[in-house]
Design brief:
The chain is mainly alpha-helical. About 70% of the residues lie in helices and about 5% in strands. It has a two-stranded antiparallel sheet with strand order 1-2. Strand 1 (about 90-95) and strand 2 (about 100-105) form a beta hairpin.
C-alpha cells in the first residue's frame, strides 16, 4: 500500500501543469501499469537473482493493488471524461455545427475498449488471487487464468501508448496538454517485460537440456 501511495504521489506531483481531473486519472492509470510491471518482472528476474526471489511472496498483494488502481482509473475516466455515455466512450461527440454526433477521435474508442478489456481481466485475476480460489478452480485452471497477466500488461501498454503518443497531438480538437514524461518509461517497461520473459525462457530451456539424461546409443 505504501508503494502504491508513493507512485500516486510521484505521478500527481510531477504534473502540476495539467488539468486536475486529468492529473488524477492519469496518476492512477500510470501507477497501475508500474505495479503490473513489478508483478510480471519479479517471476522471471527471480530466476537470475535469489534476492529478487525473496520478494516473490509480495506478488499477490502488488497485483491486487494494480487492479485497484486500474479500477479507480477506469471509474474516474467513465465518470469524468466519458460521463457514462457509450457513444462518447467510443469517440463520438455531438457537434452543434453539424447537428449530429461525429467521431472526433478515430482511435479513442478502440483504445478505450482495449483498456476496458484489460481492467476487467485484471479484476478477475485480483478476485481469484486467494488460496480459496486456487482450491475452487484447481491449480491447472487457476494457472491458466493467471497466465493472462502478460496479455493484460501488453493491452495496457497499447492503451496507454495511444494516449501518450497519438491522442494529444497538434491535430487534437483542443489545445493539447504538455507532453507526458511517462512516454519513454512506458516503452522501457514494456521492453523489459518482454526481455525478461525471453531471458527466463532461454535459461529454463538451457537448464532442462543440461540435466536431461542422454539417450543410450
Amino acid at each position: 500500500m505504501l508503494a502504491t501511495a508513493m507512485l500516486l504521489a510521484l505521478f500527481w506531483r510531477t504534473r502540476f501543469d495539467w488539468d486536475p481531473e486529468m492529473r488524477l486519472w492519469r496518476a492512477f492509470g500510470d501507477a497501475s501499469i508500474v505495479l503490473l510491471f513489478a508483478v510480471l518482472a519479479l517471476g522471471p528476474a527471480a530466476r537470475f537473482s535469489s534476492a529478487v526471489g525473496r520478494l516473490l511472496p509480495w506478488r499477490r498483494q502488488i497485483g491486487i493493488w494494480a487492479a485497484v488502481t486500474a479500477f479507480v482509473h477506469t471509474f474516474l475516466v467513465l465518470n469524468g471524461w466519458v460521463r457514462w455515455e457509450v457513444a462518447r466512450f467510443l469517440g463520438f461527440e455531438f457537434v452543434p455545427q453539424l447537428g449530429y454526433q461525429a467521431r472526433m477521435e478515430p482511435g479513442f474508442g478502440l483504445a478505450n475498449l482495449i483498456g476496458l478489456v484489460a481492467v476487467l481481466w485484471l479484476l478477475a485475476l485480483a478476485v481469484t488471487s486467494t488460496d480459496r480460489a486456487v482450491r475452487l478452480l484447481g491449480p491447472a485452471a487457476w494457472k491458466w487464468l493467471h497466465s493472462g497477466a502478460y496479455t493484460i500488461f501488453y493491452l495496457s501498454v497499447l492503451h496507454s501508448a495511444y494516449f501518450l503518443f497519438l491522442h494529444y497531438t497538434l491535430s487534437f480538437h483542443r489545445d493539447p496538454p504538455p507532453p507526458n514524461w511517462f512516454r519513454m518509461p512506458l516503452l522501457i517497461l514494456g521492453a523489459l517485460v518482454l526481455a525478461l520473459q525471453w531471458a527466463a525462457f532461454v535459461a529454463t530451456v538451457r537448464r532442462r537440456r543440461a540435466v536431461a539424461p542422454s539417450k543410450p546409443r
